[in-house]
Design a protein that fits this description.
A hairpin with a 4-residue loop joins β14 and β15. By secondary structure, the protein is α+β, with helices and mostly antiparallel strands. It has 12 helices and 20 strands. It folds into 2 domains: 69-178, Uridine Diphospho-n-acetylenolpyruvylglucosamine Reductase, domain 3 (2-Layer Sandwich), CATH 3.30.465.10; 180-345, FAD-linked oxidases, C-terminal domain (Vanillyl-alcohol Oxidase, Chain A, domain 3). It has an 8-stranded antiparallel sheet with strand order 16-13-15-14-18-19-17-20. Strands 6-7-11-9-10 form a 5-stranded antiparallel sheet. The longest helix is centred in the C-terminal third of the chain and has 15 residues, at 272-286. The structure holds flavin-adenine dinucleotide (FAD). Flavin-adenine dinucleotide binds at residues 7, 42-49, 53-54, 63, 83, 105-107, 110-111, 113-115, 117-118, 120-121, 162-163, 167-168, 256, 346, 348. Keywords: Oxidoreductase. This is FAD/FMN-containing dehydrogenase. One of its GO terms (molecular function) is D-arabinono-1,4-lactone oxidase activity.
């Protein structure tokens, strides 16, 4: 049997078929074949999720052959791309058409649909996740039909839907005119960082910090728009404190050479500092050997039913551990802290939340499950892991 694994190596699964369909009709055919065989089928993006949101026993599809920009409207600031396009390629294509995403996350190696499906986000209190930019989608449904959707009623359910409502083959995104950013990175003691936190967040478009537990130093990073066009097309990445200016799509992504596992919870923005302090204290008391940083970001409230930022201004806090080291005991020891602060897990990152936890944390969770049953009554897109949470 062919096998599939994710980026960090934490998920390895066998599947009957690994397929890379050449076009939308081929995706639909594969879904109909799965229906005829009574098996499951799911799509892999870039495998950058840390939990088993991809594997299916029947077939795992890659949309690596369904890539590229189909259409753009610079006046309306929208663009339609094939869903398998990697974020890196998508943002470069948008730039060529005078467009950009208003915000991006830490890397740009994910597939567009993969990033959208889990609510992948960057930082900035005025900015939502990439999923919030979704204004239209073409789905291959559980019956193997092609369905174009852009209704305001359904988009909030579709925006973060883990492939449970159908396979996205093309996505239309609300963009902004392309822009340049100034990046500034500096280091300071964590206590000083926390004292200034509210002011620093308010002073920048995109601010985040990484706390390094062994040195107690915070590395702060701020990105702000600049009016002038950048002088350098491809500014080299900063290796520590410093400054650089470049087009936004070249400034946002970092290069992550070391593999890791990650857990992230989204808490109400006002609870962010206290939650971080509690995490810091527990790490100092019980996990003094962990050297990987804790990341603190902000996120605007949005309307996506399964978004960790649904209906509330949000702070996200992520903890990391080397991919070669055990991580479960460390992560699960911190998880109750996040829950106490009203945390909602990132769908692509480690968590042990049960269906009951999720239903309590996400006000529209049961509405999503009901819609999922309507879209996919036979569970064509349900793996055992996802059935445990959504069936
Ligand atoms: C190095 C690294 C950095 C990261 N940085 C960030 C960050 O800054 N911010 C953040 O929020 N997250 C971040 N993540 C998490 C990551 O963005 C998410 O887990 C994202 O979903 C991964 O995208 P992917 O293309 O690899 O999708 P996968 O992990 O392959 O799939 C994710 C989900 O999307 C579904 N899916 C994929 N394609 C389709 C499709 N065509 N139609 C329907 N469903 C589909 C899959 O079935 C699965 O359920 C990071 C992860 C790593 C490893």
């Amino acid at each position: 049997m062919p096998s599939w694994s994710n980026w960090s190596g934490s998920v390895v699964a066998e599947t009957a078929r690994l397929e890379a369909p050449a076009d939308e009709a081929a995706v639909a055919t594969l879904v109909r074949e799965a229906a005829a065989a009574g098996t499951t089928v799911r799509v892999a993006g870039s495998g950058h999720s840390f939990v088993p949101v991809v594997p299916a026993a029947g077939a795992i599809l890659s949309l690596d052959r369904l890539t590229g920009l189909l259409d753009s409207d610079p006046a309306a600031c929208t663009a339609t791309l094939y869903a398998g396009t990697k974020l890196h390629d998508a943002t470069h294509l948008l730039w060529e058409h005078g467009l950009a995403l208003p915000n991006q996350g830490d890397v740009d190696t994910q597939a567009l649909a993969g990033a959208i499906a889990t609510g992948t986000h960057g930082t900035g209190p005025a900015y939502g996740s990439i999923s919030t930019r979704l204004v239209g989608v073409r789905l291959v449904t559980a019956s193997g039909d092609l369905l174009d959707l852009d209704s305001a009623d359904l988009l909030p359910a579709l925006r973060v839907s883990l492939g449970l409502l159908g396979i996205m083959t093309r996505v239309t995104l609300a963009c902004v005119p392309r822009y340049a950013l100034r990046e500034r990175v500096w280091q300071h003691p964590i206590d000083e960082c926390l004292e200034q936190l509210e002011h620093t967040i308010a002073s920048h478009d995109h601010y985040e910090f990484f706390w390094f537990p062994r040195s107690d130093i915070a590395e702060s990073k701020a990105l702000d728009p600049v009016d002038a066009e950048p002088e350098t097309e491809d500014p080299p990445p900063l290796d520590g404190p410093g400054e650089r200016v470049g087009w936004a799509h070249r400034i946002y992504p970092s290069v992550r050479k070391l593999r890791f596992n990650e857990m992230e919870y989204a808490v109400p923005a006002e609870a962010g500092p206290a939650c971080f302090r509690a995490v810091r204290q527990r790490m100092k008391e019980r996990h003094p050997k962990v050297g990987w940083p804790v990341e603190y970001r902000t996120l605007a409230a949005d309307d996506a039913w399964l978004s960790p930022a649904f209906a509330r201004a949000t702070v996200t806090i992520s903890v990391h551990q080397d991919a070669a080291r055990p991580y479960r005991e460390f992560f699960t020891d911190l998880e109750p802290i996040f829950r106490d602060f009203g945390g909602r897990p990132h769908w692509g990152k480690f968590h042990t939340s049960t269906r009951a936890d999720l239903a309590a944390a996400y006000p529209r969770f049961e509405a999503f499950c009901a819609l999922r049953r309507e879209f996919d009554p036979a569970g064509r897109f349900l793996s055992p892991y996802l059935a445990g949470l959504f069936a």
